[in-house]
Amino acid sequence: MTKADPGNAFAIGVDVGGTTIKAAIVGANGDLHESFHQPSPRSTSALRDFVHLVLDHAKDPVRGIGIGCKGIIDCASTRVKSLPGDLHFLEGQLLSDVVGAGELPICAENDARAALVAEVLWGAARGRRNVVMLTLGTGVGGAAMVDGRILCGASGAAGHLGHVTVDPRGGLCICGNYGCVETRFSSKAIESGYWAHLHRAAPAKLSLNGAGSPPDTEAIFHAAAEGDECARHVLDSALEYLAAAIVGYMHTFDPEIFILGGNIAAAGPQLFDPIRDKIAHRTRILLGRKVPIVFQKVVGFGGVAGAAGLVFLHEGLLEIC
Ligand SMILES: [Zn+2]
Question: How many CB atoms lie within 10 A of CB 110?
């Protein structure tokens, strides 16, 4: 895997998410040496200040700054081509200009692709050339590596697996399509599903909090485990859609391994057990084997490590085998 001796090379990895921005000083072996996080910036100057705060903490010279960001990112120029939602202020911006770090190389990529890079370099997909990854959180991110290449597509949008239709009659999605995976299986979908039951006064064990918000996804998973019929119904329904989507991805990409990451994947067996057998059964004829569905290995700061990995790949210190 090592192309040139990476020695004690370091890079800064930054993961710009919808609610939190994270960063770390990362070694070429994937180790995080110092990590940072704060609420997501709401202006370009706040993003720049955060990255420079991290840069100021680096004791050793870094080889570059890698940025994983939601949306469609042109990795050749670092331009944010499309980014609806809370980070919309970054749309049209060159991340290298926003960060402004002089001669230091700046790499940028979609956040889910950065998370996949971390798994390929240091995690569950090490040594694999055909991998699909879903990041399950507020929304659903996705990335696919086929024959050793992470797919980008004609406009950089390839691998947006959260925006595949699983319910043609479903609700309007942030992307403008209807019934996307993200509208059926994401923390927002699960929480709004539970809220709809509360709104109908269905028998439920959880209730709105003081601010009128529905219980969060973690609480809904706990409630389901403790027998809350409402939570079970919401999760069973959401998992049906997720399983159907994964079957489609397996048939499309024929991966060696399928990785689930993100906050919701941390639910572990409650998420994996109900869908593994179902997916294996539905893919057995076309694929002729059971594709492992595993939890991401580079947890918590996977997107950060992967963003730094972009720098190591760009600088020729590491390569995808
Ligand atoms: Zn969508």
Answer: 27
